[in-house]
Fold this protein.
Amino acid sequence: MTRVAFIGLGVMGYPMAGHLRRGGHEVTVYNRTAAKAARWVEEYGGASAPTPREAATDRELVLMCVGNDDDIRSVVYGADGALAGMKKSAILVDHTTASASIARELDAACKERGMGFLDAPVSGGQEGAINGRLGIMCGGDADTFAQVKPVLDLYARECTLIGPAGSGQLTKMVNQIALVGLLQGLAEAINFGKRAGLDMEKVIGVISKGVAQSWPLENRWKAMDEVKFDGFGFAVDWMRKDLAICLEEAGRNGARLPATALIDQFYAQVQARGGNRWDTSSLMHLLAND
Ligand SMILES: NC(=O)c1ccc[n+]([C@@H]2O[C@H](COP(=O)([O-])OP(=O)(O)OC[C@H]3O[C@@H](n4cnc5c(N)ncnc54)[C@H](OP(=O)(O)O)[C@@H]3O)[C@@H](O)[C@H]2O)c1
């Protein structure tokens, strides 16, 4: 049994921390909104702490999943931050989707203190977190990865070390660039099929067995068909945060992202329609309603 802290019990973190408890670990949680931490303890047992520092104190492993770079800084640094409580030899794992530069910054801050660090963003959505079937893309040292992998495997379908610190975040950028292209293509295809008067249930039934098959096709075509995007999935606000990170990184490495930049602007239009928390399949809203 490992003594673990988990910081950030959102859509993703709440079930991920639950898998750690089910896996027999001693878990202390921290969440900014304390009521969520109390609900988690009621559901899974374990303990909650009033600050990230207290949650991280004397833990071998501190995991977190918050929103963005600024949120990471606010739970890691300062008098009440996780680093202030962590012991030498402890390991910090960040599941937040964030920039590669903050991953390298955290890696340096941990190394300075004799601690280990992994950036470990995830893919698989809320369903993947609940079912313990996430793709976890890691950046960091091989030794640190080897120590942490058995714990991450509790909620992973695949957990891979890609390269040094920052590589996990860069891999997540690759994932998001691929994903938004798929979502836009799917929205255009379904809108086209509907306007052509086809039975989309039959269309999806057959094309999902061919080369156009994908997770969004199988899991989001219905939402696109019904133009209903509220109350589930991966929020447009989060995707715009991720695309801003991708576009900024591309500005550094010279990769051209013309379609990604365009789709980012489509998401801005979805936000203008009130879709900030709609699922990212809501690109269809722009096609179905115009
Ligand atoms: N949802 C998905 O399908 C999905 C899939 C893959 C990756 N991700 C990524 O995973 C991360 C979390 O996503 P999520 O959907 O779980 O988000 P969420 O439901 O909005 O949860 C965010 C969590 O971070 C905490 N938090 C945010 N800002 C904070 C701050 N400044 N200080 C302390 N705590 C803070 C929130 O606390 P409160 O409860 O107090 O607000 C909450 O626990 C994001 O980086 C997202 O891009 C999400």
User: Anything to note?
Assistant: The longest helix spans residues 167-195. The pocket of NAP is lined by residues 8-13, 31-33, 36, 65-67, 71, 74-75, 96-97, 122-123, 125-126, 234, 238 (CB under 6 Å). The beta strands are 3-7, 26-30, 47-48, 61-64, 91-94, 116-119, 122-123, 134-140, 156-163.
